[in-house]
Design goal:
Layout lengths: L10 E5 L4 H11 L3 E6 L20 H6 L3 E5 L5 H12 L3 E4 L5 H4 L15 E6 L14 H7 L20 H23 L6 E5 H6 L5 H8 L16 E5 L5 E5 L3 H10 L3 H4 L7 H6 L1 H12 L4 H10 L4 E3 L3 H6 L1 H5 L3 E6 L2 E6 L23 H9 L3 H10 L6
Parallel strand pairs: 1-2, 1-4, 2-3, 4-5, 5-6
Antiparallel strand pairs: 7-8, 8-9, 10-11
Length: about 400
């Protein structure tokens, strides 16, 4: 008999929309949590219709970020809907909400409302700037928070406008931090008389948490880390180089012995044996010379030949892959990074969710649900509602079913 997934038996109620909170709930659902997503009747999460859509007008992204979740519709703008949400929260282990601070309180659903009725509750709050502080009430989109946290400042080329990855990194970072918080709180609950707690996750601080040594460098040396294009300040060589076929490769040759092998591979034994470049501090001083040598070499090579030569020399290097390259990459396939799931009778490929667990792995059981698909079953299972009660809620517009 296969082992249970690690979060089986844990009930999660997701209240929110778009990316940060739903991303966190997706990870919990993948590893076995019973995740119920609350959506407004008739509209649902806006992400259902974001970006590239399939023939039904549903986002391809929806299949992934809402996998393994159950969709329940509740109109939170009316008192009946708020009361229904209150009942559901009282039956859950983990609540994840990513509304603007104060919104849940305005509905009578703030964490203090459940201290007595559901003391085990792990109340997880995801917002742009956190639940307090001068910026708490400001709208906190990932694009803005990445800038405020300092990440955008170090991205791009000196003297040019800061750039962003064509992804909502801040939202995903916040989602991962929310998962860490949930798991820590669940572990703490086991050793603290079964009591839950409130978790305050902000996009701003999730990005800030990944800013390495920039604060220490500024505090200790007064140094402001600046954008450095395709390099990393103070580590040489690590850069992106164009090859003769127009493709780019990344070379990380910043270890002392690796640097020697790298220079020998590109035919620059003189630089491999140059004592001035024998350690990182010396290589930083001669960064321009080193990068020019590597650029000259790569521009004379086909990318596949360059990568083969570097692999033979045990120098860390790799291609700059598009998603098409990633999907075709044999390593990704060998590692089980793609899963197949049925969506409206068609098979779709979704990315696996990480990390990999050897004994109790997660998996995709179903793609994102249709709006209100599980309203009736969840109200029956969680609240013991009968058919008449559910139909009354449907008739009044408080909930809807698929």
């Amino acid at each position: 008999m296969p082992n249970k997934k690690p979060l089986e038996g844990i009930r999660v109620l997701e209240m929110g929309q778009l990316i940060a909170g739903p991303f966190a709930a997706q990870m919990l659902a993948y590893f076995g949590a019973d995740v119920v997503k609350i959506e407004p009747p008739g509209k649902g999460d806006p992400l259902r219709s974001w970006r590239i859509l399939d023939d039904t007008g549903t986002s391809y992204w929806w299949s992934s970020i809402s996998r393994n979740k159950k969709s329940v519709t509740v109109d939170l703008s009316v008192s009946e809907g708020q009361a229904l949400a209150h009942q559901l929260i009282n039956k859950t282990d983990v609540l994840i909400e990513n509304f603007r601070p104060g919104k849940m309180e305005s509905w009578g659903l703030g964490p203090e409302q459940f201290e007595s009725s559901n003391p085990k509750l792990v109340y997880t709050r995801v917002s742009g700037y956190g639940q307090d502080g001068p910026y708490a009430s400001m709208p906190g989109f990932a694009s803005v928070c990445e800038g405020v946290a300092g990440m955008r400042y170090v991205n791009g080329f000196p003297g040019q406008a800061p750039v962003r990855a064509n992804l909502s990194l801040g939202d995903s970072f916040a989602g991962v931090h929310a998962v860490i918080g949930v798991l820590l709180a669940l572990f703490s609950r086991q050793t603290n008389d079964g009591k839950g707690q409130t978790i305050d996750v902000s996009i701003l601080e999730s990005v800030f948490n990944l800013m390495e040594g920039v604060v220490s460098e500024y505090d200790g040396a007064g140094v402001v880390r600046e954008p450095s294009g395709t390099t990393v300040t103070g580590i040489v060589p690590t850069n992106t180089y164009r090859c003769a076929d127009g493709k780019f490769i990344v070379i990380g040759g910043n270890g002392d012995s690796i640097f020697k092998r790298l220079m020998q591979t590109i035919g620059r034994a003189d630089m491999a044996d140059d004592e001035r470049m024998s350690n990182n501090a010396g290589r930083v001083e001669h960064e321009a010379t080193i990068d020019q040598a590597l650029s000259d070499w790569s521009s004379s090579m086909q990318s596949s030949d360059a990568l083969h030569a570097l692999e033979q020399a045990a120098v860390p290097a790799g291609p700059i892959n598009s998603v098409a390259d990633v999907v075709a990459d044999p390593h990704f396939r060998a590692r089980g990074n793609f899963e197949s799931v049925s969506v409206n009778g068609e098979q779709r490929v979704l990315p696996a969710v990480h990390p990999k667990l050897c004994s109790t792995p997660g998996s995709t059981e179903w793609a994102g649900p249709s709006l209100g698909e599980h309203t009736a079953s969840v109200l029956q299972e969680w609240l013991g509602a009968d058919d008449q009660t559910i139909q009354s809620l449907v008739n009044s517009g408080v909930v809807s079913t698929a």
